[in-house]
Amino acid sequence: MTGCPMTALVRVRWPILAAALVMAALSVSACTFSSVPDPSLSDKDAQLLASAPDFELDADYKRYKVDDPTGEPPGTIVVDTKARHLYFVEPDKKAIRYGVAVGSEAFGWTGTAVIGRMSEWPRWMPPAEMLERWPHLRPTAEAGGLPGGPGNPLGARAMYLYHDNVDTLYRIHGTNEPGKIGTGVSSGCIRMTNIDAIDLYNRVKVGTKVIVK
After folding, report:
1. Fewest Cβ atoms closer than 10 Å to its Cβ: which of 41, 58, 127, 163?
2. Among the listed residues 199, 131, 108, 123, the one whose alpha carbon sits nearest the alpha carbon of residue 160
3. How many domains does the chain have?
4. Catalytic residue list contains 31
5. What is the largest CA-CA distance in the chain?
């Protein structure tokens, strides 16, 4: 990869060759991927996250700074539903990449929208189509929804997607099921781990462009 050092290896014994190849691979990776520190947490975040479900993500779905594959302007969110990745585009052709869960084929959504509203530890109201599929959720809806907290399906943060000033009913949000990151199981919404949802929330604003493809 351009700009990444590679070591020339000639006439070396296999153990030395193997070690050199590993080091070269790590050097290339270091040029492409770098870890992103966890965001600072409020006392409320720390308390609620301590009670939230936890899960060790596969390396492919952890939060990294990467070379931007989208070509979109800085500040744009791009969701690759097939790869289960969300990119927040940064300057200098870089992006923050997060693992996500996306809608299954029957309930998936693609298109272009903007963040029209943002909420911390939001209340969850089951949408009408979900109530049709799962009538057992009707008491939750009749009670005015589920308050924010560790067991709430929206998790720590929600970013509401609007198109032409109309709520699409799709969101980018946290989750109470982090083990499903990297899969296609949700009812169309884009789920992130709670810590990743907080990290993204801190980087965006109302009006941020979102492309889901």
Report:
1. 58
2. 123
3. 1
4. no
5. 74
pLDDT at position 63, please? 98
CATH number for the domain harbouring residue 50: 2.40.440.10
Place of tokens 């097939």: 82
Cα–Cα dist 8/23, whole Å: 12
Q: Is 120 exposed, middle or buried (0-12, 13-18, 19+ CB in 10 A)?
A: middle
Residue with tokens 């520190």: 37
Model-level pTM?
0.82
Catalytic residue flag (residue 85): no
Q: Which of 31, 85, 163, 189 is catalytic?
A: 189
Which is the catalytic residue, given 4, 136, 163, 173?
173
Taking 70 as the threshold, does the pLDDT of residue 79 lie above it?
yes
E strands in 8-63:
34-35
